[in-house]
Write a structure and sequence with these properties.
Number of strands: 4
Distance between the termini: 37 Å
Order of helices and strands: EHEEHEH
Number of helices: 3
Structural class: alpha+beta
Strand order of the largest sheet: 2-3-1-4
Low-confidence stretches: none
Shape: globular
């Protein structure tokens, strides 16, 4: 797919981790406060990125693009459904 601007909001703890071990070479820190660390990536969203982002769990919120927000949301809902079906 096309390269897109991706905005990710991390908790401060995971923000420090992502700053030390960037997700991608295009990573830029946009905001770094006691409340959150927001980074920007420029790449084509794909399945590998989705799985990597899922590994941050509740320490990450995808802000942009909407298509990636939906992909993460759908993936999390499908996972939750597996546990609710028990």
């Amino acid at each position: 797919g096309p390269v897109e601007e991706i905005l990710l909001r991390f908790t401060p703890l995971f923000g420090r981790y992502v700053k030390a071990k960037p997700i991608h070479q295009t990573q830029e820190v946009i905001q770094d406060t006691d409340e959150a660390c927001v980074v920007r990536l420029r790449l084509a969203p794909n399945r590998d990125l989705l799985m990597h982002l899922r590994s941050y769990g509740e320490h990450l919120r995808v802000l942009k693009p909407d298509s990636l927000v939906r992909a993460v949301t759908d993936s999390l809902r499908a996972t939750l459904a597996l546990y609710e079906a028990r």
